[in-house]
Amino acid sequence: DGGITQSPKYLFRKEGQNVTLSCEQNLNHDAMYWYRQDPGQGLRLIYYSQIVNDFQKGDIAEGYSVSREKKESFPLTVTSAQKNPTAFYLCASRTFVWREGSTGELFFGEGSRLTVL
Amino acid sequence: QKEVEQDPGPLSVPEGAIVSLNCTYSNSAFQYFMWYRQYSRKGPELLMYTYSSGNKEDGRFTAQVDKSSKYISLFIRDSQPSDSATYLCAMSGSGGSNYKLTFGKGTLLTVNP
């Protein structure tokens, strides 16, 4: 079955540690995204990538880093510079709207919940 | 003014009620409008998708877009306890501005049996 796999589902981190969240998709989607979700805040865009080896900052990129070495993979590193990293992180992907048959629907993974101890 | 405004609720209704969820937006470049449903501790899933203005119906769900008023709605008929979830509206532009979706904050809905 095609889909987006995020791992781990739950992660605990001590202050000062970097952690990396994995995101893999087998949907052959062009673009991939990382969102952060906090209670009452909705979804906020961290980083996005439209093609391999290229990515752009979203609205809240400070303290985060990403890479896009393969079309299928878009890992997110939460660095120690992120002041309030405890949150629910969602990875998503989509094809470009201009591709024939595409609605531009964003498909989401099941999320990774990060807790800083 | 925020780009997308959505009443966070919470909204609590009895089973069988008609539910109306709404979002307003300020960016006239938005062309694609979506509603996502998110169950607790899960990723959002697409519920309805509409391009430009008009209505779209899918079973018990109806999505409406009024671009002149910059207002979108989702109606749920004969609501069921399984509809209890957070509903997120999302929208994007076309061409070069469609690289990302802008989300509302979500409305938490509870349908009581």
List the helices and strands and how they pair.
The complex is a heterodimer of chains A (117) and B (113).
Chain A: E1 4-7, E2 10-13, E3 19-25, E4 31-38, E5 42-51, E6 54-57, E7 64-66, E8 76-78, E9 87-94, E10 107-108, E11 112-116
Chain B: E1 4-6, E2 11-14, E3 19-25, E4 32-38, E5 45-51, E6 54-58, E7 61-66, E8 71-76, E9 85-92, E10 102-103, E11 107-112
Parallel strand pairs in B: 2-11
Antiparallel strand pairs in B: 1-3, 3-8, 4-5, 4-9, 6-7, 7-8, 9-10, 9-11
Description of the structure:
Chain A is 0% helix and 50% strand. Chain A has no helices and 11 strands. In chain A, strands 2, 4, 5, 6, 9, 10 and 11 form a 7-stranded mixed sheet that branches. In chain A, strands 1-3-8-7 form a 4-stranded antiparallel sheet, with no helix packed on it. The termini of chain A are far apart. Chain B has strands at residues 4-6, 11-14, 19-25, 32-38, 45-51, 54-58, 61-66, 71-76, 85-92, 102-103, 107-112. In chain B, the strands form 2 sheets. In chain B, strands 2, 4, 5, 9, 10 and 11 form a 6-stranded mixed sheet that branches. A 5-stranded antiparallel sheet of chain B has the order 1-3-8-7-6, with no helix packed on it. The radius of gyration of chain B is 14 Å and the shape is globular. The A-B interface holds A 4, 6, 31, 33, 40-43, 45, 48, 50, 58, 88, 90, 92, 96-97, 103-111, 113 and B 6, 8, 32, 34, 36, 41-46, 49, 51, 88, 90, 92, 94, 98-101, 103-106.
